[in-house]
Amino acid sequence: MIKLREVSVTYRGNLVEALKNVTTVIPGNMVSCIMGPNASGKTTMLKAIAQLVDYKGRIEFDGKDAKEMVKTLRRILSYVSTIDVRGLLGVTVLDLLIYSRYPVSEKFLTTMKDIEESVKTAETLNIKHLLHRKVNELSSGELQRVLLASALVRRPEILLLDEPESHLDMRSKIWLSGFLKSISNDATIVLSTHDPYFASLTCDYLILLSQGRLVFSGPREHLLQNPEVLEEVYNTPFTAVKIGGYEVLISVPLES
Ligand SMILES: Nc1ncnc2c1ncn2[C@@H]1O[C@H](COP(=O)(O)OP(=O)(O)OP(=O)(O)O)[C@@H](O)[C@H]1O
To answer: ABC transporter domain: which residues (predicted)?
Structure first.
């Protein structure tokens, strides 16, 4: 369980207030989604949880202050954002996966276990054929899978994903949704997304931000029954529809 208590983040001195007094609880061993319009603070919230930005307030992992467990978090937490790796010129996918194991690797040098785990993870995510390709030459969708692999290769207990479904085609999105659900028994997963369909298909728990403030946090069913919460934040109509017996949220004009 991750607890945020009155967490605030500012940038550029105090000029930009990206997160304002956010208090919420993110359940363990589930998939949680952070939603909200552009610039509402989703990435900042993930980065605060990952201890990648300074914040006021308190973040706890299972009751322990995150600021006192930074070393442990390097081992048990993976944070993934597409933007961060675009500059990795010449690095192969296999290099990236092995490098990503560094915090959990047994020795300073690469071990056979690191290589085996990297190949195994690549197999699981159907990217074995990409292992010797250069990261900066991949398509955006290929890169998205590779990044997920780089996060999973160290078997994290906490997995933070910034817009993991972006750039994925529909079939891959559905695959990703099922995959994340299938591993959520063993990991606490928090992702940010712009896609209400993907969020309602994938997440057990939803968090909604608007202009840095928490507007809603609770089980997905609650938001499905009250889509007007989303409508107010996005200023656009949302509705819950049943597809194949599964209820999801979509955003479409209700009347023409
Ligand atoms: N490094 C930074 N320096 C200054 N301002 C920043 C920085 N990072 C984010 N911000 C600002 O903080 C606010 C929240 O940004 P953030 O990236 O967290 O939003 P977001 O909800 O993830 O946005 P998007 O959906 O557009 O990706 C925005 O106003 C943004 O301009």
So the answer is: 4-236
